[in-house]
Amino acid sequence: MHDLIIRNGSLCDGSGIPVRTGDVAVNHGVITRVGRVPGRGRTEIDAGGHLVTPGFVDIHTHFDGQVSWDPQLTPSCWHGVTSVVMGNCGVGFAPAQPDRHDWLIGLMEGVEDIPGASLSEGITWEWETFPEYLDAVERLPRVMDVAAQVPHGALRAYVMGDRGAANEPPTEEDLRRMCALVRQGLQAGAIGFSTSRTVTHLAITGDPVPGTFAAEDELFALGGVLGEVGTGVFQLVPLGAGGEKVDDPLGEIKWMRRLSAAVGRPITFGLFQNDNDPDGWRELLQVAEDAVASGADLHPQVAGRPFSIIISLDSTHPFRRRPSYKRIAHLPAAERRAAMRDPALREKILGEAPDDADPRSSLFPQGYERHFPMKANQPDYEPGADESFDAIARRTGQNPETLIYDFLTSEDTSGMIFRPLLGYSEYTLDPIREMLLHPQAVLGLSDAGAHCRLICDASTPTSMLTHWVRDRSRGARLPLEFVVKKQTWEPAQLYGLRDRGLLRPGYRADINIIDLDRLSLRSPEFVHDLPAGGGRLIQKADGYVATVVAGEITFREGEATGALPGRLVRGTRSGPVVL
């Protein structure tokens, strides 16, 4: 008698081999048989006509605080994700001096747009050191597995105090202590170290993340600990990745190449197409590929769709800094929308200029040629240039700002606008497709749990299947087997989680059953479900028949079953269980 049998599914096993029909048997949280499974199961699922895949592995999340209060880790759980890596971009909550809690919250709020009040109310602070943080995470039940990295920003502030927070260079003693704490974290179960070097990552105070300007001696010393311990990934957001102009576009990847070769550990770095240099990503990919010959292991981390913001009256919009709008900004959304439809107020707001500046506005082109109305049903993340508000205005002889105002306030539209910032320089996802196909590239950058009021890219695993495999009409698609491998086996391998990501005997029974014909993304919606009533964008999906974690069914048709089999993953996994 098996614990669980999934029968007659179209098995896409994560390895990239062609889909085949078969059964999957599970016992004690492990896959025990794949193919034709005789006998019976205590629980059986008929997957006839459905896709069966390994659970998805998301290596770029910011659930560092949310793990304190949300056992579901929404919204990732709604998109087939069964394992996540947090502690990215050099921000996190351990190690933490007791008098640095508010500062760490402000750092996370500024960099990752997670409401500070929600973090303050939701985080339990049962730790000071990184090992104590892992212990606290381990004690809480949850729906999926989580793994953590040691964040550079928290580390610097813990060791150096205000000097570290202000990006001053460390002394020899500072560096020795930081290295010791990275070693301690890795030995306790951290699976990497992270830092950020883009000047677009700012704390709520406007200060750059600690580590932004770290010299090579600091980076090589901290990276060297990974080599010494023989485990962990070095993750970073490099200078230029946030859209800023840089004098030497290859400068960052040059030191990454030398560091990886010197310490023998993989480095993964964020890579987007950048409007300042729309073809520069190709050279970075080539350097990453060439680096293999010199003993380096560089993995550009690329996104499945453009890095964008969703404009709405609940998040951000072009009128939020105008005096007349500010006078009604405190009203609930429905009342605010109704007030804005008043002709006199409409005319007033449209006639005003902002009364203060957006500190990040200089990074991205102004105007409305990259503002697209979002449909009320399946969102389109690859709209054509002729679908922008600017193009519509030119065709109809109207003002694009007026069109946007009326779209945001109408009761007959989605009220949401898609605004790509990075990765859409030429109004096509062909560059992203080319990046995804590169042998060194790894899929990531969902930022799940972060940018709560601006994006909801935690839904990327679903759009990888709907857009890239099934629906894309403005260019070539990607094979199903390739897309599944990109979300399962490949990210698990990079981070040393070699016990998952394949539908093979001995592997962890993290499994998705998906009705691919029915799979669809719902429209984003803004909700106030965070601690202290904090607001965020969420996005659900239809078509996930079931999700299984460690052999237990956690979701059926998008609804949680109540099972919480997820655990903290401490360190790397050597491979599948020998049956």
UniProtKB/TrEMBL annotation:
Coiled coil ranges: none
Parts of the chain that traverse the membrane: none
Domain Amidohydrolase positions: 44-555
CDD domains for this protein: D-aminoacylase
One Pfam family this sequence matches: Amidohydro_3
InterPro entries: Amidohydro_3 (IPR013108), Metal-dep_hydrolase_composite (IPR011059), Metal_Hydrolase (IPR032466), Metallo-dep_Hydrolases_sf (IPR050378)
Matching Gene3D superfamilies: Metal-dependent hydrolases (3.20.20.140), Urease, subunit C, domain 1 (2.30.40.10)
Gene Ontology terms, MF aspect: hydrolase activity, acting on carbon-nitrogen (but not peptide) bonds, in cyclic amides
A GO CC term attached to the entry: cytosol
SUPFAM superfamilies assigned: Composite domain of metallo-dependent hydrolases, Metallo-dependent hydrolases
Protein name in UniProt: Amidohydrolase 3 domain-containing protein
Taxonomic source organism: Streptomyces hygroscopicus
